[in-house]
Design brief:
There is one protein chain. The protein is mainly beta. It has one domain. It has one helix at about 120-125; strands at about 15-20, 30-35, 50-55, 70-75, 95-100. Strands 1-3-4-2-5 form a five-stranded antiparallel beta sheet, with no helix packed on it.
């Protein structure tokens, strides 16, 4: 879950690679996966689709036990809001969901009103403010 990802675990990220336009997505799911390489497109073995992944710099160290690297992968499931707007996540979002506009290499991102499925309140719009979790 993204709330369990700490920024020290992703401090060696140099780039986030997006496989599709995430500007139209309210949220993406993120996880730290054990992968055999620092860079390149990882294999994807979940339902749904991978929408992006992180690249690591040369300073990233492999695990002594497994020889793998922990890299973020961004993904969506078939029942997520982008595919089923009136479905399970018409409001609210999965625990690992993050607004993709808040993501950057080395920064875990955050939930927003957009990612949680609610429009900003009129008072918040008037003040030019946005809630974040």
């Amino acid at each position: 879950m993204s709330s369990l990802i700490s920024e020290d675990e992703i401090s060696h990220e140099t780039e986030l690679v997006w496989l599709e336009d995430v500007g139209c997505l309210d949220y993406v799911r993120q996880s730290l996966d054990r992968l055999s390489t620092r860079r390149g497109r990882p294999a994807y073995r979940r339902d749904g689709r991978m929408v992006g992944y992180a690249q690591l710099g040369p300073g990233a160290k492999a695990s002594h036990c497994s020889g793998t690297f922990r890299r973020r992968v961004f993904w969506l499931l078939p029942h997520d809001r982008d595919s089923v707007p009136e479905g399970l996540y018409a409001s609210g979002a999965p625990a690992e969901a993050i607004d993709p506009r808040t993501l950057a290499p080395g920064h875990k991102g955050r939930k927003t009103e957009r990612s949680e499925g609610g429009p900003p309140s009129p008072a918040m719009r008037e003040l030019g403010l946005e809630l974040s979790w």
